[in-house]
Design a protein that fits this description.
six-stranded parallel β-sheet, six-stranded mixed β-sheet, single chain, Rossmann fold, 434 Repressor (Amino-terminal Domain)
Length: about 350
């Protein structure tokens, strides 16, 4: 592999001149620059990213942690983040923590060793050590989707959807169709987005005089299998609901499968609403009514907020809350027989 000294000999210039051409740190005559560039092409020289980062104090690389790479919701956000990074001339290192606190801590250490310029974090559900770990990195950080408690002197940015508002939208839609016994399948207990969506469901029920959902709440693990198992539990209840609000689309897809196995026609006998609006929901049977999160905007904003901090344009923490939208498809209909 060619070195910077090989390029200098080939171009008949000093190593310092080659360094200035590669790093753009000082003016080099057009003739000298051309000789260096020809030598680089001829030798196939690839500059060391580590060496360049030591000189410039940046790597033009961002890190990102996500809790579940198999969930299309996170995949769609990553796609948006990658697009924004590429357009800004940055690379992205992606780490899947698999919702494991130990793995999350290990990857944070790996990213720190890679001298990343900034970090985007979708945290695991339960990790009390994360605030301390982030403080130790001393780099600009944006939290996405899941807010965590941080010290006042630790200015992390946050971009998320108004999850409670999404729960309200979903439940009010079902109420408008005449449903009164509306169940909810939430995510793992203690996960902030799920708890906020459940709070929206409870608030909508209470506002309409339908109680607070007592005895109508089940939990899954944000996977299709989790939704499938939770829906079977819902349908075993002494008084099954006529509608179910499911706190993410993967679980809603599992819930649809469980309903089909019980010969319950959706939406004629049972209405189902999901949350996220992943691309697959337009192709389920029937297509899923869901609360859409602005995933493309979430990813783009996360990168933009990081770059503001990296470029020194802003020091104070910034919190952005985006509004969800209800996308009505074919999995919801009027309550069967005017059920109350």
């Amino acid at each position: 592999m060619a070195t910077i000294k090989d390029v200098a000999r080939h171009a008949d210039v000093s190593v310092t001149t080659v360094s200035h051409v590669v790093n753009g740190t000082r003016h080099v005559s057009p003739e000298g620059r051309e000789r260096v560039e020809k030598a680089i092409r001829a030798l196939g020289y690839v500059p060391s990213a580590i060496a360049r980062s030591l000189k410039s104090n940046n790597t033009r690389t961002l890190g990102m942690l996500i809790p579940n790479s198999s969930n299309p919701y996170f995949a769609e956000i990553v796609h948006s983040v990658e697009d924004r990074c590429f357009g800004a001339g940055y690379n992205l290192i992606l780490c899947n923590t698999n919702d494991e606190a130990h793995r999350q801590g290990t990857y944070l250490q790996v990213l720190a060793e890679r001298r990343i310029d900034g970090l985007i974090v979708v945290s695991t559900g339960h990790d009390a050590t994360l605030p301390t770990q982030l403080a130790g990195l001393s780099i600009p950080t944006v939290l996405v989707d899941r807010e965590i408690e941080l010290a006042e002197q630790q200015p992390c940015d946050l971009v998320e959807t108004a999850h409670m508002q999404g729960g309200l939208l979903a439940t009010r839609h079902l109420l408008s169709l005449g449903h009164r016994r509306i169940a909810c399948i939430g995510g793992p207990e203690g996960i902030a987005p799920s708890e906020q969506r459940i709070a929206g469901w409870r608030t909508a029920l209470a506002d309409s005089g339908c109680g607070t959902g007592e005895g109508l709440l089940w939990h899954g693990n944000f996977t299709s299998q989790g939704g499938y198992e939770a829906m079977h539990a819902v349908l075993r209840a002494p008084e099954p609901p006529t509608a179910v609000f499911v706190c993410n689309d993967l679980m809603a897809m599992g819930a649809l499968c469980a309903a089909h196995e019980r010969d319950l026609r959706v939406p004629e006998a049972l209405s189902i609403v999901g949350f996220d609006d992943i691309e697959l929901t337009a192709f389920t049977s029937p297509p899923l009514t869901t609360v859409a999160q602005p995933k493309q905007r979430i990813g783009a904003l996360a990168v933009d907020m990081l770059l503001e901090r990296i470029d020194g344009k802003r020091q104070d923490a910034r919190k952005v809350m985006l509004q969800p939208e209800l996308h009505v498809r074919a999995s919801t209909a009027h309550a069967p027989g005017g059920a109350a």
